Amino acid sequence: MMNIQDAKDNVKDAIEAYLSKDETGCYRIPRARQRPIMLLGAPGLGKTAIMSQIAAELDIGYVTYTITHHTRQSAIGLPMIEKAVYGGEECTVTRYTMSEIIASVYDAIQNDGKAEGILFIDEINCVSETLAPAMLDLLQNKKFGPHLIPEGWILVAAGNPPDFNDSAREFDVATLDRVRIIEVEPDSNVWLKYAMSAGINEAVIYYLKVKPQNLLKIERTVDGTHFVTPRAWEDLSVVLNEYESNGIWAGIGLISQYVRDPEIASEFNKYRDFYRKYSEDYNSDAILAGMFEARPSTVSAEGRLAIISILIGRLNAEAGQMLAQKYARDLFWSDPGVTPEKIRTKLKSNLTPEERKGLQFALAYLADTESKDLDKVLGEGRSKYNEHLVNAMEFAKTSFGTGPETISLLTGLLSCYNIVMFAEPGDPLYSYNDELLSSGRNKRLQDMLEGM
User: Fold this and answer.
1) What's the 3-state SS for 118-177?
2) What is 4-184's CATH number?
């Protein structure tokens, strides 16, 4: 079993190996030995999300289909009658049109100009009886009907184990012996690390730090199936962020539409109110500006965690904005003639989150009528950001000493992709890393950088 990050690394390594070529331009691993990769795990773990990320990071094509949305005809093509001559006699034979899915791969090659890519088939073990033989043929022979997946396109599939989906079916040994199976399990630490750099609602992050066992829960009861998944938390987060930006405080009614476990929904609602209270009691703007008094000595452990989570969220968002500005600056350096039209076209393609945010900032920058020097903006932004980070850390040291809370703030910052990637040698993050994470742990920042 692997967490979703390890699964992503494994799939990415496999695809890079499959697409490796020798000096003659031939694939080092022949097509026949390029086993399809199958991810098996509970719904909502991020199996689909990591595939588009891998394609974007490797700069290859990407086509995805949820196979349960298809009929046998759309998957393998429609029959058509043709004439053929065999042994000197004309015969009527049945041929098949090209599968819609295979045709989509060729369309992607033509439209995106990428000869290599990933064909991702989701819910592959949940198809109907009529489509099941076609799925076995796909996994065993990399084809739909008579039409092969183009060379250079790697087949990856995903499905849910029978424990989580009543329509899931088992594959026979002959099929299983032709695929690489990666079983994925939930890991709250990995998900929280992702969440802190993906704009997940801060109350959701806070709650799942306190209650990590509730990241994924599926329970059959006499009243029906109660469940919550990482996908549900992320979807709820997007809605909560939008509501809150419009000054709307959504309650248990909205939460219950995503968190389909009454106890967890009610508990999260209470923790969210608690988190809001601490957000209001402790002015994060004042703390980051260095205008604070040491007060939290009587605050509960959960309250201290709330304060730390608030500061991490603010600094992470600020670092993310700086990274977007840096991406835009580098884009203008590499392509001084870039236009809004070119950026909009690029935004329609499969991108990493960092690329998308950077392009969106570049588009906004070009639309701004006021002339700005991005190098100057970045320099001033880095100075202000480092000042905020110092003030947050000094607030923690003044309020909590150098105990677990202050260490938790620092390690939380070091868990954020935006913060680590924006840091440069000599920045305060490096200084606090050396000061507080000693005794064999002072390599944490270096390890984080190498892992990213």
Assistant:
1) EEEEECHHHCCCCCHHHHHHHHHHCEECCEECCCCEEEEEEECCCCCCCCCCCCCHHHHC
2) 3.40.50.300
